[in-house]
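Request: How about a record?
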Amino acid sequence: MMNVAPTRTLLIFDLDEVRFGVDATLVRESVWLPKLTPVEEAPPYIVGIFSLRGQIIPVTDLNLRFGHPARPYRLSDQIVVLELDQCLMGLIVSEVREVIELSAEAIQAPPKFVVDAPVDPPLVEAQVRVGDDIVMLLDARQVTLLDARQLMHLPQELAETDTEQLSPAHHFCPQATPEQHSVFRARAKALMEVATDEEGVRLALAVVVLGGQYFGIELDAVQEFRDIVRPCPIPCCPPHILGAMSLRGNLFTLLDLRAALNLPRATQSSDKAVIVRASIRLGTGLVEQAVGVAVDQVHDVIYLREEELQALPPALREQHAAEVKGTAPYADKMITVLNLSALLAREEWIVNEIV
């Protein structure tokens, strides 16, 4: 019988400019950073708690855990929720990248340094090469420690505390603008809600920014979010086709939706792409395939109640009835929920030229 080499599954994420990994079997989920409620007398690297569907989640700031200076939080930051011994704990990261599976042989012990003074157990348990990057594999138990576990039993009401009533030193992310605070609060409120059968069906949406406006893309159609790195131009294509991008050996057409959405042309290239599966018109029929949609920013993931989706105004309904499902309130703004399959099936988007 052939021996199968042992493997490990890792979740890869960025913390500022450094790439880290953690055992993916410990990961419960990842969420966009919400407003956190500070907790007195917690270790300095545990920067607050939030309620995840009724359960208190203590959150560790990895920068502080490594002894680095604190940095302002951003709307693009995420929390990776880990489950250790039936306890949930969160890590603030800059961006979740991907889940990969590697042979155990590819994972190497980190270098050891000789020191005279006693040191705490290391936070990095191994290192591994992924593509052109060296990824530091974290020991999740040492990073979160047991200090956080006692915070999980705090009363639910504490996570709902209005931190605006606290002293300025205890405000969450004091450098944030009022608009950013509104988004952080909206995320916290959405995560706090416990879904029940009576609430009906919710629409899962990725909120993206394009041309300064907010759009919702149904999460069921989203394959992943990626950085755009030097798309390769495709000759003889209309301007809405920005080129082709490679992702793990597969080529995807990269599209610009601005013209279809009546948005002005971009003054600079987009940084992010949403890889989606949509029905594309080829010849006389529709074929489902994956394409990349260029966006300025991936802003959030929300779960919209059916009754929150509002019909389009009559003027827009005539022009975009099939391509836009409606609008909905989001923080202090409105988002436009797109029907990507209908949008990408536009007749004028078909390329008939033979090169």
Remarks:
- The chain has two domains: 7-167, 199-349.
- Confidence is low (pLDDT under 50) at residues 163-169.
- The helical segments are 62-65, 140-144, 156-159, 178-192, 314-320, 340-344.
- The first strand starts at residue 7 and ends at 15.
